[in-house]
Amino acid sequence: MHAVRNIRLCTKDCLCLFVCPTGATDTETGQIDASKCLDGCRLCVDACPSHAIFLIPKNYTPQQKKSEKTKQALKELAKSKAEQERLALDIAKETTDPTERQLARALARSLRILSEDLHRESGFMLPQDEATRAFLQEQLQKNSNSDDFPKEAVLRLLQLL
Ligand code: SF4
Ligand code: SF4
């Protein structure tokens, strides 16, 4: 196991910095250096008042196998959520009513989270899954000439994977 930090929860009071025996935690960069972490000694986890640190396994367990039919259904559902998110964002952009704008933004955010879960379930968001690499390569091939496509980010991700 090793420690990771959820920087959204971190309030930067630096307790983790003081308790870590190896100096693995860095509050400036928000990173915890996994190579210095002592097999998840938990001192930082227990010290953090914001519950921002947790332990994860060094090696992920293999993802549960899913049939092609199930994966396809999950992908279709994720695609429809992405379209709904786009519609919600359009409403947020066009409406002049502040309450409606707030609601549309909240809906878009919620749809994004649903979509991310669906992608994860269909095997595209776990770095250890081969499908992730195949998906990124496919997107690169299909969209590399499009101005909207984050080509550099995808190339970097492929390199990291
Ligand atoms: S102890 Fe928790 S809240 Fe404080 S800096 Fe570390 S991670 Fe952030
Ligand atoms: S689990 Fe222990 S060694 Fe690892 S970062 Fe936290 S305090 Fe440091």
CATH topology of the largest domain: Alpha-Beta Plaits
The CATH architecture of the largest domain is: 2-Layer Sandwich
Structural class call reads: mainly alpha
Query: SSE order in H/E notation?
Result: EHHEHHHH
Cα-to-Cα separation, first versus last residue: 20 Å
Average the pLDDT over all residues and give the rounded result.
88
Q: Tell me the domain tally.
A: 3
Low-confidence stretches: none
Shape label: globular
Name every ligand kind in the structure. Answer: iron/sulfur cluster
Helix content: 40-55%
- Rounded to an integer in angstroms, the radius of gyration calculated over CA atoms is 20 Å
Characterize the main sheet: 2 strands, antiparallel
Structure commentary:
Helix content is 53%, strand content 5%. With 161 residues, it is mainly α. The chain folds into three domains: 1-59, Alpha-Beta Plaits (2-Layer Sandwich); 67-125; 127-161, no CATH class. Helix 5 (130-143) packs antiparallel against helix 6. The longest helix is centred in the middle third of the chain and has 27 residues, at 68-94. The mean pLDDT is 88. The structure holds iron/sulfur cluster (2 copies). One iron/sulfur cluster binds next to helix 2.
